[in-house]
TrEMBL record:
It holds the Pfam family HbpS-like. InterPro entries: PduO/GlcC-like, PduO/GlcC-like_sf, YBR137W-like. Belongs to the UPF0303 family. This is UPF0303 protein D0Z67_10550.
Length: 158
């Protein structure tokens, strides 16, 4: 599979956001979703940090072996993109790339505070909208994104 075939389209990423919507999102949901991400990370021996925020409050954080403080900095930068745009950090970056530019060149936002790299996904509640984010950092950006999507799919199916 080529890199282009391996990269989801903007439409594919938008479809993920439309599909992965919660009925409600509680503190207990954040704990269960975060715990699922820890379990997936441990199974894969992934050197990741995991963060879940809702309404400006951190509800979950875990750092698995091999992760570093840099992962927390990446989490904060990716989460700010979700908070500002209301879309997955990977989708935001992909929209800029689809226009033939980059987030860094065209967003006019400080790259030390914002990163449109994969790994942060909006927590969207049916009838409410985006209320928070779930973020992973430590893998290549498409893998961070895919891990979050996989966990959301499993959680919402359960």
């Amino acid at each position: 599979m080529t890199q282009a075939q391996n990269t989801p389209s903007v439409a594919d990423l938008e479809a993920q956001e439309q599909r992965l919507v919660f009925r409600t999102f509680t503190h207990d949901d954040a704990w269960a979703l975060g715990s699922l991400l820890v379990e997936l990370g441990r199974e894969r021996q992934a050197p990741i940090a995991i963060d879940i925020h809702r309404a400006g409050q951190q509800l979950f954080h875990a750092a698995l072996p091999g992760s570093t403080p840099d992962n927390d900095a990446w989490i904060a930068r990716k989460r700010r993109v979700v908070e500002r745009y209301g879309s997955a950090s990977y989708l935001v970056g992909s929209r800029f790339r689809a226009k033939g530019t980059t987030f860094e060149d065209s967003s006019r936002l400080d790259p030390d505070r914002y990163a449109a790299h994969g790994g942060s996904f909006p927590v969207t509640v049916e009838g409410v909208g985006v209320v928070g984010s779930v973020t992973v950092s430590g893998l290549p950006q498409i893998e961070d994104h895919r891990l979050v999507v996989e966990a959301l799919e499993r959680f919402l199916a359960g």
